[in-house]
TrEMBL record:
<dbReference type="Pfam" id="PF01965">
    <property type="entry name" value="DJ-1_PfpI"/>
</dbReference>
<protein>
    <submittedName>
        <fullName>DJ-1/PfpI family protein</fullName>
    </submittedName>
</protein>
<dbReference type="InterPro" id="IPR002818">
    <property type="entry name" value="DJ-1/PfpI"/>
</dbReference>
<comment type="similarity">
    <text>Belongs to the peptidase C56 family.</text>
</comment>
<dbReference type="InterPro" id="IPR029062">
    <property type="entry name" value="Class_I_gatase-like"/>
</dbReference>
<feature type="domain" description="DJ-1/PfpI">
    <location>
        <begin position="4"/>
        <end position="178"/>
    </location>
</feature>
<dbReference type="InterPro" id="IPR006286">
    <property type="entry name" value="C56_PfpI-like"/>
</dbReference>
């Protein structure tokens, strides 16, 4: 039986940051489930950069069904966790069911991959204190306030925590995460 990986997300998540790890991990042989506040069709977004804008723009992205509601997740069934970015983490961090899930992964030192605004979730449970991370560069002060040492790098590995800035860093992010996964939760 293949090891299970959990992706936690919601509406307004960045399309590429959900679907790239979902497909890459399945390609590797893992059983991947997507959890959200409720079982429903999620509406993702596309963040991109336009000349003349001071920040990224947002357009409608793909839709995708959530396999589970957060309340249905048993963290003990999963070998690792993926936390995509986009705008979803900004409201998901307030969900008590999700905070319980996140805490379970950090308490048991299971592999966690986070990208872009995803570290807002791990910050909400105190999971970044004393850790080295990267995130979307605009979150540098948030990461420092959460007790993390921020690095503006494609990917930062701190033990079982693998973080990346945004979707352009996917290849190094997943390469490093798969290195951690193969050591801690190999495909069987």
């Amino acid at each position: 039986m293949a090891a299970k990986i959990l992706i936690v997300t919601g509406d307004a998540a960045e399309s590429l940051e959900v679907l790239y790890p979902y497909q890459r991990l399945r390609e590797e042989g893992y059983d991947v489930h997507i959890a959200a506040p409720a079982r429903k069709k999620l509406q993702f977004v596309v963040h991109d950069f336009e000349p003349g804008f001071d920040t990224y723009t947002e357009k409608p992205g793909y839709t995708w069904p959530a396999d589970l509601a957060f309340s249905e997740v048993d963290p003990g069934q999963y070998a690792a966790l993926v936390i995509p970015g986009g705008r979803a983490p900004e409201y998901l961090r307030n969900d008590p069911e999700l905070r319980k899930i996140l805490k379970a992964f950090f308490d048991t030192d299971k592999p966690v991959a986070q990208i872009c605004h995803g570290p807002l979730l791990t910050a909400a449970i105190g999971g970044l204190s004393g850790r080295r991370v990267t995130a979307y560069p605009a979150l540098e002060l948030d990461m420092q306030a959460a007790g993390a040492s921020f690095r503006d790098a494609e990917t930062v590995v701190d033990g079982t925590l693998v973080s990346a800035r945004a979707w352009p860093d996917h290849s190094t992010w997943m390469r490093e995460f798969l290195t951690v996964l193969r050591a801690k939760a190999p495909v069987t």
